[in-house]
Amino acid sequence: MYKEKLSLKFVHLYPDEMNIYGDMGNVLTLKRRCEWRGIRLEISKVTLESNDFKKGDIYFMGGGQDNDMYKVFEDLKNSKKDFLKEELESKKQFLLICGGFQLFGNHFIDFQGRNINGLGILPLETKAPSDNLHDRCLGNIVTEIHSKHFEEIKNNYGEKPSKYLVGFENHGGQTYYTDNSLTPLGKVLVGSGNNSKEKIEGVLHENIIGSYMHGSLLPKNPHLADLIIGRALTQKYGEEFKLEPLEDKIEWDAHKAILRKMGILNTD
């Protein structure tokens, strides 16, 4: 146990509208991994009806259908944009999956040509080429974590971590960076990632992690979950935290099973 009683506040952004393909599993994973270490994780929700909500240490937004994204963005833009920008400037941790990732960019154009002007926090843009199934980025995805980010993960995770991330993607939008200040979360080995051309996945930019990995991302990638927890603790308490190791055999078995299925690992 840690020397003092630790606690973190977790804010789930639009859990009803932005929650598909197992995204809720990310919330449960962070909650359990904190509890197993004696860290209290207080969870609150931001909804379309929320006008006054608690500040957090970790913010999460999952993916959603296009029509739900329109409703969410109008609410973000009209009543929550300034608050979220202040929290980002305060170095709070953000995990954004699929639609959440897209909405923090400059704009999203759907296959009908309708444009959602995003929050403009990340320099990226997303466009859906069509509504045809063959144009979707769909299926299992494996990425090799960018070397810059892997070094931080190794320093934070209690045991020797995998250099891979595994997940499931299902998105019509194709995302491109609009300047070179961004670093991808990883290099795509299997699947599409941000788009069907560049073979890069997501982004890790300062205190924002964006990804197209559903399935969900954190249960099968405990090293990334612990990076988020460790960063949040460091920011809140003002000191570096090396998290106590957990018994992650089940998590790594699930992780390796996908790597073997995709031909990345040949043996245990």
Record the SSE blueprint:
Blueprint: E1 7-13, H1 24-35, E2 40-46, E3 58-61, H2 66-89, E4 93-97, H3 99-103, E5 107-109, E6 115-117, E7 124-127, E8 137-145, H4 147-156, E9 164-171, E10 174-177, E11 186-190, E12 200-201, E13 203-205, E14 208-211, H5 222-237, H6 249-261
Parallel strand pairs: 1-2, 1-3, 3-4, 4-14, 5-7
Antiparallel strand pairs: 5-6, 7-10, 8-9, 8-11, 11-12, 13-14
Helix pairs in contact: 1-5, 4-5
Please tag this protein with its features.
Rossmann fold, six-stranded mixed sheet, 268 residues, single chain, 6 helices, four-stranded mixed sheet, alpha/beta
Describe the protein's architecture and organization.
This protein has 268 residues and is of the alpha/beta class. It has one domain (7-261): Class I glutamine amidotransferase (GATase) domain (Rossmann fold), CATH 3.40.50. Helices cover 30% and strands 25% of the residues. It is built from six helices and 14 strands. It has helices spanning 24-35, 66-89, 99-103, 147-156, 222-237, 249-261, and strands spanning 7-13, 40-46, 58-61, 93-97, 107-109, 115-117, 124-127, 137-145, 164-171, 174-177, 186-190, 200-201, 203-205, 208-211. A six-stranded mixed β-sheet has the order 2-1-3-4-14-13. A four-stranded mixed β-sheet has the order 6-5-7-10, with no helix packed on it. A hairpin with a 2-residue loop joins strand 13 (203-205) and strand 14. The chain is globular, with a radius of gyration of 18 Å. 43% of the residues are buried. The model has no long low-confidence stretch (mean pLDDT 92).
